[in-house]
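Could someone model nicotinamide-adenine-dinucleotide with this protein?
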Amino acid sequence: MHVYDKFYINGQFVKPLGTEQIELINPANKQAAGKVVLGNVEDTQKAIEAAKAAFKTYSKTSVKERGEILSRLHEALSDRSDRLTEATVQEYGAPVSVATMLTKIAVDAFSHMKETMESYPFIRTAGTAKVRMEPVGVVGAITPWNANATHIANKIAPALAAGCTVVVKPSEFSAAQTEIFMEAVHAADIPAGIINIVNGKGEVVGEELTRHPDVTGITFTGSTLIGKRIAAGAAANLKRVTLELGGKSPTVILDDADLTKAVPLAVGAGFINSGQACLAGTRVLVPESRLEEVKRLMAETVEALKVGDLWNEAAVIGPMVNQKQFERVQHYINQAIEDGAEVVVGGAGSPQGLEDGYYVKPTVFANVTNDMTIAREEVFGPVLSIITYKTEDEAIEIANDTLYGLQAFVFSGSTERGNRVAEQIVAGRVSVNGLHDEPKAPFGGFKQSGIGRDHGTYGIEEYLEPKSILGHNAVL
Ligand code: NAD
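Reply:
Sure, complex below.
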């Protein structure tokens, strides 16, 4: 059994000082898949020390030098694409088409960021002042398991573009992906200390990053609960904090939408990444007059989805990442039934023949009101709720009646109307008439979905501080 017992600190693979281990379980068959050795506070401090030392020179590099580093990372990760995809299928349980897409996003993060950085105005003027955009310092990057390599890439790329050095604390459940990432960093021949990677628990490695005075920025993707804890911890020395947190995104199907197109898109939006996606559209708002049609089409669409058989290109739903996540999703399904929701398709338990893995039944509920737990809390599994509305205004009101504000989807027969509704939804991203993505557009949330934005120029700015130089032309 493979033991993941390497960290990447100061340009070298090093053995952990921490001795605690956790077992990794393949979620598709519940078989032991490896062990990860977890870092302790001292491991974390060594990584921070290396990042601090490297910052002195790295922060002074030119855009050209940083561009070369981003290109090398792009190439090194690209060379390992197949292995990364394989690890994502085996360790996380993503269907191969999803894992391939996640790998591509991770690889492309470096080339996109290089392009963005090359046209970014690091030096500008404000009135008579010269303004220099300077790196914040050492950044602690903490990532979740639902797209581990993608999140690492999306955090490292802008931080490096800005001139920061980083210490990454990946999800402890993603050690295979992390190991491949470390190998790519090493192969890219990045000067020592710029990128450091330490596996470990959030309460140990994550909290040390949050607490340590030499870490001046934290970028975190994960749950709202932990995000709040990090923000509170980081406040002690006023670190810059970027938080990409949870969601309970609405999918608004307007009454002029072609339901034969809108319903499959709504299912796609809700079940992205087997429903283990922060941006999943899990509240499907439909006109009351078209409820029966929507229910019929939902049932047909969901029953046709390929669940399991992860290496089949047609597979769309994989298992939940672990036992805890499986139980969490079952809990929400049972609670919704107790609260009076109607099961349109799916329900509690595992799909027939897939009991050996952490599979849940892709589930759609109707008869849900927006005050029910299933409509308010993030399930993080393939579970959708249909909520009806009478008027467009009411649809917008329900869409915005949530603690979150990460993403929304709007489907309408009229592009103009779709855009009009999109403008009224309080969310960091709204996708009109499709499941669109734009890696250069800001990604992040309003309200309790977070603080700050990833991607593009907005992403770089999370790692920069403006410095005004007054009298830069003055002569004494
Ligand atoms: P999580 O919050 O439990 O853990 C995320 C990371 O934080 C892990 O690396 C974990 O070890 C670490 N952590 C845990 N406790 C910590 C602490 N006290 N201090 C510092 N770090 C700590 O989330 P998860 O279960 O890994 O991922 C699922 C969550 O992530 C969902 O809520 C989902 O919505 C969210 N998510 C958000 C986005 C986004 O971009 N908005 C993207 C993906 C996932």
